[in-house]
Amino acid sequence: MIYKKKYRLYKSLTILLSALLVLSLAVFAFLLGNKSKQKTVLPENSSSESSSFEASEIVTETETVTTSADTAEDVTSAYIERIDELEALIEKYEAAYADDLSVRAECMAELIELLAVENRPLRSHIDDEGEPTGELTPAEVAFCYTDLTTGAVFSYNADKIMYSASLIKAPYVYAMLKAVATFEYNKLNFSADGSPLYAEDGSPLFEGKHPNLDAEGNIIYLDGEEKYDLSKTWVYNSSTMFVEGSGEIQKKDDGFTLTYLELACYALKYSDNIAFSEIRKYFGLNEHNEMLEILGIAGAEKGFMQLSAADCAKYLTEIYKFCEGDSKYAAAMKEAMLSAPYTVMIPAAMSPIPCAHKYGWDIGAYHDMAIVYDERPFSLVIMTDLDRGQSADYIYIQNIAKVMLKLHQGNGELT
Question: Are residues 98 and 135 located together in one domain of the fold?
Answer without folding.
Answer: no
